[in-house]
UniProtKB/TrEMBL annotation:
This is EEF1A lysine methyltransferase 1. The lineage of its organism: Eukaryota, Metazoa, Chordata, Craniata, Vertebrata. It is found in: Cytoplasm. The gene is EEF1AKMT1. Belongs to the class I-like SAM-binding methyltransferase superfamily. EFM5 family. It is an enzyme of class 2 (transferase). It comes from the Eukaryota. PANTHER family: EEF1A LYSINE METHYLTRANSFERASE 1 (PTHR13200:SF0). One of its GO terms (cellular component) is cytoplasm. Pfam families: N6-adenineMlase. It comes from Perca fluviatilis (European perch).
Amino acid sequence: MGDSSDDDVPTLSAHTLAALQEFYAETSEASATPSDQFAVGAVDEDWRMSQFWYSDETAAQLAEEVVREAGEGGRIACVSAPSVYQKLKQGVVEGSDRVSAVVLEYDRRFAIYGEDFIFYDYKEPLALVANVAPQSFDVVLADPPYLSEECLSKVAETIKHLSKGKVLLCTGAIMEKLAKDLLDVKMCSFLPKHNRSLNNEFRCFVNYPSGLLS
């Protein structure tokens, strides 16, 4: 895995970039923190829950990916990945109005999102609310909160329960072998970024043909 040139990095579509600029022009007038409830960072990170939000551009790129893969009328589950859910709801990603999304989170502050919020404790991977039917999501994007075999193994149970097939996993590069064993995913060349730098190399993995791979 050598350094890749900027030419290899997936870029946001012109539509998303323009909509993103308009969104922040409207929401950042007098405050450094966007006031919109769906802005990435509208809910502060809490390091005690191992929360590290994606950069705005990474959240948008991942949102574009899941919209494309979910298809018209598709359903998307964001497991411990609230910043991607927020980006889907901002209305800046082309096609996001033609899909539905939910956010599975341990942090009950995200209950501000009403019926889209599903309380989730990875230690009880199948203890989901009754209206979450098995294999009912076209794409499941998951970002396990901890870099441990136990955490990834339990989150993988949740993913398999939710997904019709397509999985986008975001976790540390050191979890590559276990992720492949559990979910048959491949590491992408796309490098996700966070608002704060992490100590561990962070990567995305998919189990379907994706532009993020190359």
